[in-house]
Amino acid sequence: PPPNERAQPLLRRMNDLGFQQDEHLPLRPQAALMDKVLESRRGQPLALALIALELAQRLQIPLVGVNFPGHFLLRVPGADHLLDPCGGRRLYPADCRELLQRQYGAHIKLSAEHLASAEPLQMFQRLSRNLRQLHLSYDDNLAALINAERVLELGNGSAADYLARASLYQRLECPNAERFDLEHALLLSDDPIQRLRLTERLGHLPPNTVVH
What is the pLDDT of residues 157-169, one digit of tens each? Predict the structure, then answer.
């Protein structure tokens, strides 16, 4: 088949070789650590997609990532459907709508923004956010902090990203660093209720101290 028809067979072949979505609950950091995913052949959709994108590039198969909320997807440029990295299922707009609403509720409407292609930096940032969350759920605060810092180093950090790092600094009892991140979150937030809560939280922190 021509190159643009080889993406789905590639994903199906990966699935046959055992590359599948990690169903372990609660999800472990191994599901987003690329070396562990290659070893176990189990991972989050984004981790499986990154492996597929690397293979597609080497095989000259056109394929791009799609930053779909809650479940990373893939697309052959110009195709009328997306591909699930966990097995290669085709998803048409109705399937995408169903996937979105299954995860976030019926009130969420599918938009063009949900189907936008992801740049490599965005994919790496999303992977770091996933790892931040997974390490946090296993109470590994330092590993979570490394990924929280990487998210912000990659640029365009959101209020939620600064807030996530602030909460880690709070757990690690670093009030000066926590204050810095809360102030950044306050600058970036456009939610009046969140801004009020951030202002209150800043008021409860000890005054900024300089260490000599």
Answer: 999 999 999 999 9
